[in-house]
Design goal:
Layout: E1 8-13, H1 21-30, E2 35-42, E3 49-57, E4 71-72, E5 75-76, E6 78-80, H2 89-92, H3 103-114
Antiparallel strand pairs: 1-3, 1-6, 2-3, 4-5
Amino acid sequence: MLKSERPYRVVLRGLHSSEDTTEIKEILKENGHEVRQIVNVRHRTSKEPLPLFYVDLEPKSNNRDIFNLKYLNHMKVTFEPPYKKKKSSSAKGAKGLVIPKSVSQTIQMRQVRRRPPNQHL
């Protein structure tokens, strides 16, 4: 997908999770924004709906104006850019750490650590 075809995603905070997404879509259309999709964000583990919505806008020149909207459906809201996903610790790699491949290597590493610094292998 080309960058010009990708939706412009923002996060909507401040509305209850039971709010009707078609109503939000209509209000944003009245403000000059063409909405591709609105999704209620759910908690990662419990899957319960959160008071957050992902709003995907069609790529247009006025997309940044959505951050100036303060009220939606008589409720005070904020539009924010989405957070970057954090990489897991396993994806980052072990920087400077030696990861033993077997139990025997673990025992050898412990023995090396116990030796005084002036003794060599």
